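Internal ticket #5521
Category: modeling
Description: The requester needs a full-assembly model to guide mutagenesis choices. All entity lines are attached below as received. Residue total reported by intake: 503.
Assigned to: D.W.
Attached entities:
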Amino acid sequence: MTPKLSVINLTKTFLKTKSNVFNSISLHIDKGEFVSIVGPSGCGKSTLFHILAGIEEPTSGSILFNGQIQKNRKGKSGYMFQNPLLLPWRTVLENLLLGTDILHIPKKESSKYAEKLLQKFDLSEYKNEYPSILSGGMKQRIALLRTIIFHQDLLLLDEPFGALDALTRLSCQLWLLDVWQKYKSSIFFVTHDISEAILLSNRIYVFSGRPAKIIGEFKVSLPYPRKKEDLMNKKAVTLEKKLLKLLLS
Amino acid sequence: MKQIKNIFAKYIPAIVFFGSILLIWELLIRTGLISFYLLPKPSEIISALINNWDVIFPHVIQTLIETIVGLILAIFFGYSTAILLDMSPRVKKVIYPLIITSQTIPMIALAPLLLLWFGFGLTPKVIIVVLSCFFPITIATIGGFAQIDRDFTKLLQSMDASNWQTLWFIKLPGSLPQFFSGLKIAATYSVTGAIVGEYVGGYQGLGIYMQEVAHSHVISLVFAAITITILLSLLLFFLVMLIENITIPWNRVK
């Protein structure tokens, strides 16, 4: 099976400082797979995501979507930031339509779809509210739904729950798993929280500090649907210890 | 309607304060502490205004037309300049100092020249209104563009949005609050700008009228003209505020 996304020997050098952000990184995400990167902060995970989303260009190496080399990657994935970036001047429903507005999809069609989506996830009551009244967790849910409406096949999630408190984060994580199961998306997820990576992913790549390389790749062999208690599972605990040791070494 | 009521409720203390000043003013002259030759009573100004309304009214309309045409052009030029400067840093480097320099030119020196170049009609007055109003609009809007979170632009880039879409979806609505604070300043400048333009020459307008009555030493009518100027400026200011309230509904939700 051709992977949804593969990265081959990708290197990024900042021209000004002549420093390598990462060096010859190769990785892949299969169709419908949930893959996470964990690594110390500042290891270039966000730069990698910028490159995958087409906002920046790599210095060398190639990126393949569905086995095809992708030169222009803008608009070919759903990119979500740590900051939910809901537009304050658009209501929840209008925020969901940002991507489809850019694609010139008629409002009639897209808003019908968005409303159905809100209904599906029990968020309909918020549809005409402005984002300023929403809680942090709710903002991230809306931002995720916006990402899915724009592009549900391949999602690039850059520490989406990093700024949330522990309880909200947990409920958002389980919610994300639910969304993923429903849409069978391929998800590439950045975090520095090891247990978050274990709870969510099929597979985990471990990045070193700068210049970043991949220093480990682990399969998480826990069955879905997962619950918080799965983290106490012996397999999960051993994996967590391994990852921690690798990151601290 | 409720919002309009709220806006006015906010100004009750100011209105009460202003009213008491008028009252003290009236009393000072009635008691003879200040001679009525030097300063007319507020009541006298009001009655002069009412009695001469049919003479003043055409002048008011003339000034209002100059002001509104000038203000609309200033919004157009001010906003387009802001967009242009935001889109190209190179253009900004060239144009920005020029814009600032344009504000250092004394209007009172420029006005007679404009009269010479464009005649006694509407044009020179409108130009002065534009020159005094576009600056606050441009500066405020550029500030508005600059404070928009850059991640918004990145998000739109990742969605393959064009520059125009980024402008339309992010920059335009994101800079509206700043644009309106600039426009409020511009609105208060605009009437005075038109009057300066008229002062140096014209057929009609409050500036002309002010000169006429000043030359005939009818102080109460000079004050009446000043009162009208203030009222016009305030009217424009509140009009801008009203439009702001309608166009930025998300700022009302707290």
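Resolution: model delivered.
Comment from assignee: The mean pLDDT of chain B is 90.
Ticket closed.
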